[in-house]
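If it is no trouble, can you show me the amino acids of a protein and the tokens describing how it folds?
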Amino acid sequence: MRLTTFLRLLLALLPVITAALLKPAAAARTGTPAQPLTTPSPAAWETTKTFKSRRGIIRDLAGDVSSVLTGLRLGVPRFFHRFPSADAVKSSLGLNENQIAALPTQVLNIPGYGNWTDQGWNLRFHGNVYKQPNISESKLDVLVNIFLIGTSVQALPPSQASQARNLTAEIFILQQGNQNVTFSIAPTAGSSGNQIIKLPTPTTPEGDFDSFLPISNNGFEAGNDTNQVQQLSVSVQGAPISNATAYLVPPKGLTIISDIDDILRITKIYEPVEGLLNTFARPFKPWLNMPSIYANWSAHIPNFHFHYLTTTPEQITRSYVDFIYNTYPGGSFDTRPLNFSDVSATLRIRKFLLKKAFQTYPDRKFILIADTSNSDVMRNYPAMVRKFPGQVQCIFLRNTSATDSGDKFPYDTSGFKGLDQKMYMFFRVPDDLTNLDIVNGQCYNASVPQNLTFSYQGLPFGINKASTKKGAAG
């Protein structure tokens, strides 16, 4: 009996959804080059006075958390599809305009990349302008518990409770639209060449900004005279915790575009209870020895450009940046802007950001790496091969279902039909990636079985369209 795609997904997800709803309450940094500057994001605990009646914040936000299961039903293995808008936060916390005006303006400055053109260097500036309301710890605990399943912030160890509060405080912010943003930039190597760059347009209604702007070559080597990736310090005037490092990437070379969840860190996004705890409460933990794989690539591949692309909403970017820069080689970043705020937009944003990188560097080669629990990855990575011929060097996909019994997500390998096996590999553990000459296009470890059916795989009850033995893609 042939099942529709919807039924296959639904059957596969029943154990996950049931576990999420019924589970009872539960009582190394690697040696890398100089890392980019990062900024901690402490939450303030002072209570904000209110002058208007508060709406029921749990009622307002219940829909946000219910989107977890909605996303799972749609085959989108991500927890965060819709975070509260500035108006929702303002209303829920009962803030008035005078209180908001008194809050300091803050800027999330995401590590960017620059490219060389006939006119010189262009640098991408992107991030968000916001204000963070002061929320009492008791109110934060109420908010934290909305995101936890089967436990509460009160039941967490003190360090985990603190992390959960900080991350939740980063979510409940007031985005600032129509704001002008001015940057100070300088080479990180210590040479002269400070510059002031003002964005030509104000921030979007959601507080976002994203622009490529020309910068002076003063203090930097011309892109046609070097193959080195150059770092520069970028900060926002008037925003004290806004420092970041950007990367001037020459026209030719090798760039890795890497996902983060369940490929660089243990998230278990396919297990809602574990995934929420691993994101909100527990310290971020690298997946096996993946840091050593990246450290080896950084040490032995000349001028390797690392770019980290995750569809995690930008409100929690700092947690991801801090983890990456303390565990993996530093690099530029992309996260999901606030104007991509629903499930369908989440499906599109990865492709949008991939195309932006490919179009920015038409003469560079790309290594794409992620895991099979991302339905958008399974479509978009092979699509880049066809959309940008000759630019994709390798595709590496960790098959989470081959090694993690908690992953019940089916995944569709049909996009890989017709691609040369030498340019992609489904792998099980980081060691499968060792001894590959990726610079020269060796992307396939023949000792790792592939077993692709070029259809849905990992379906429950053995109902794959084609019979396969257990392997990297089985």
In short: The first strand starts at residue 105 and ends at 110. Residues 1-79, 467-471 have pLDDT under 50 and may be disordered.
